[in-house]
Structure formats: structure tokens, C-alpha cells
Design brief:
This protein has two domains: about 1-165 and about 310-315, Aminopeptidase; about 170-310, Gcn5-related N-acetyltransferase (GNAT) (Aminopeptidase), CATH 3.40.630.30. By secondary structure, it is an alpha+beta fold. β4, α3 and β5 (about 120) form a beta-alpha-beta unit. The longest helix has 16 residues, at about 100-115. It has nine helices and 13 strands.
Length: about 325
């Protein structure tokens, strides 16, 4: 007889075991420890045990769903209106018994009680409170196509796909960079600068990423001045076992509006990839929304290849 209850402090070892048994595909970090779950999920400031609902068969945890909330408009805290089903797992031996459906229904009840009217299934900014570097890669990307059971499951529950996020990798073991004379011209006047200062100190950023090691790459004029392009680099050590390679994630790429279409972003990406290659990093990952045509073009032009697609789902709660 399957029973459902909220998270308890003694659950992490069984949740970790379930994590590895579910085999959710290339976008899931395998070989992790309870310390990783504690750092990136349970110890996060706004973790609420009531939002993590587990299915148990006797004393054995056979499934769980985790619901939470995204950031408010000022990124100073969470918004109960922005509820999200972050992740759901059911042990392969217990699937097709209605456990997943029951877990989602309980997650929806939790979100509805908090004030959510339109629930999102699949973490993606700005509703991405947990599982960064654990599922999806360097950023939350919804539910991945490499996790093939997710799409039919959520569609059967009345969820609609409202956004796609593309996951791109660049194999840094290849030293062949695209030739672009504008890049060569930019390199004569710019230099790559590295800082550990994040782009923003908004509480939402600090709570989710502040405890992780990151560095900020910037393209700055050699004669001095402010950055013309910048991005943050995160180590993806959690994926070393999954991908059998050292990887780094590149996030928060930004160029001032008035300086776009001058090749600064492309120069930065190629310079960062070259620096990571020198540091023996094998893979660089970036993600982009399907609506960001300029971003897609930039990644393709700098040698990145699409390796996965994440889907973000939405449903109105009655």
C-alpha cells in the first residue's frame, strides 16, 4: 500500500538511492552524494519540507515530487503566485500505478493553497528554485527530452508546453575556432579580464548561486573602461561521472544594448572557450530559449552543438 507524506530529515539517503535508480538521462547528475542534495536543495533558504512530497511503500521511498516557488519581480524573495513543480521521480518498478499522478496532484494542492493559480512544470528562470547543477545542466531547462517519460506524463495531466530551452555543448578538445576578421579586430583592442565579482548581488542570485564557486569573464578595452561583454562561468563537477568529462557552464551572458551586433559576445565566447581549454576543461555548456534567435545564432556560430531540449509546461489550477 503506497502512502504519501512530507519530507523528513532522515529521507536524503533514500532519496539519493532513488535518484540513481530512476535513470533520467544525460541531463541528470549521477554519482553525486547527499552533500550535493543538501547544498543545492535541502539547505536552500526557502526550502519547505511541505513542498517535497514522498511516496513510500512501507518504509521504502519509491517516488517524490518537489514543488516550490520562483522569484518575485525584484528578485528579493519568492512569489507564491509563481509556483513550479521542480522535479518528479518514481522508481521504475513502481511506474504505471498512478503514483506519479497522485504526487503531482498533491504538489498542485500545496501550490494552490499558497496562492498559485497557474503552475509551471519544469524549472526555468525565473521559476528555478532548486536542482541547479543537478538536473538540466548549468541552468534549469524544464523537463528534458533525454528524460523521455516526462512529456507524455505531463501532457496526460493536462499540461501544455509553453517554452523550449535548448542545451548546447562545445567540445573544447577540438582547437579549431571559427575564423572571423571582426573577432581579430576586436582582439587588438580588447582583453579578457577575470573577476570573482558576480554581475548581480540580488538575494535570489545569492541564495541559489552564491554558495557555488564561479568566476566572471569580461571583455574590456585595453585602454581602460567598462566591460563590453561579460558572462559567468560555473564548474560542473556534479556531471563528471555522467559525461565522463570535465565541464563548465556559461550563464548570464550580457552585452549593453547599444553595443550589440559588434561581435563582442562572439569574441568573449571564443576567448572563454580558449581559456577553459587551457585549464583542461573538456566541455562548455550554454542554454538558450527557443525565442532567442540571436542567442541561437551566436552559439551555432561559435561551434556549439545542440545536445538536448528542455520543455517548460504550464497548467491553470481549477
Amino acid at each position: 500500500m503506497i502512502a504519501y507524506r512530507h519530507f523528513r530529515n532522515g529521507d536524503p539517503p533514500q532519496l539519493l538511492k532513488l535518484w540513481h535508480e530512476c535513470g533520467l538521462g544525460r541531463g541528470t547528475a549521477f554519482g553525486i552524494t547527499c552533500d550535493a542534495l543538501d547544498l543545492l536543495v535541502f539547505s536552500v533558504q526557502y526550502f519547505d519540507a511541505r513542498g517535497l512530497i514522498v511516496a513510500v511503500d512501507g518504509t521504502r521511498v519509491v517516488g517524490f515530487v518537489h514543488a516550490g516557488f520562483g522569484a518575485n519581480d525584484t528578485e528579493t524573495g519568492i512569489s507564491a503566485e509563481r509556483g513550479v513543480i521542480c522535479l518528479i521521480m518514481v522508481h521504475p518498478g513502481y511506474r504505471r500505478q498512478g503514483i506519479g499522478r497522485q504526487l503531482v496532484e498533491q504538489a498542485e494542492s500545496y501550490l494552490r493553497a499558497a496562492g498559485t493559480v497557474q503552475v509551471q512544470a519544469g524549472s526555468a528562470a525565473p521559476r528555478d528554485p532548486f536542482y541547479i547543477l543537478l538536473y538540466g545542466g548549468c541552468q534549469a531547462a524544464g523537463f528534458l527530452e533525454s528524460d523521455p517519460l516526462a512529456a507524455p506524463f505531463f501532457k496526460a495531466l493536462g499540461y501544455l508546453s509553453v517554452e523550449q530551452r535548448f542545451v548546447y555543448h562545445r567540445d573544447l578538445k577540438s582547437t579549431s575556432d571559427p575564423i572571423d576578421f571582426r573577432i581579430l579586430a576586436n582582439r587588438r583592442s580588447l582583453q579578457l579580464q577575470i573577476t570573482d565579482k558576480p554581475r548581480t548581488l540580488a538575494p535570489w542570485w545569492v541564495t541559489r548561486l552564491g554558495q557555488l564557486e564561479s568566476i566572471r569573464f569580461q571583455e574590456v578595452p585595453k585602454r581602460g573602461g567598462t566591460a563590453l561583454a561579460e558572462l559567468t562561468c560555473l564548474g560542473l563537477e556534479t556531471y563528471t561521472h555522467t559525461w565522463k568529462a570535465r565541464a563548465a557552464g556559461l550563464i548570464d551572458l550580457s552585452v549593453p544594448q547599444e553595443l550589440r551586433r559588434k561581435g563582442y559576445a562572439k569574441t568573449l565566447l571564443l576567448d572563454v572557450c580558449r581559456r577553459l581549454r587551457e585549464e583542461q576543461v573538456d566541455i562548455a555548456e550554454m542554454q538558450v530559449s527557443d525565442s532567442n534567435l540571436a542567442g541561437i545564432g551566436l552559439l551555432q556560430a561559435t561551434g556549439f552543438k545542440k545536445v538536448d531540449t528542455g520543455h517548460v509546461y504550464s497548467k491553470y489550477l481549477g
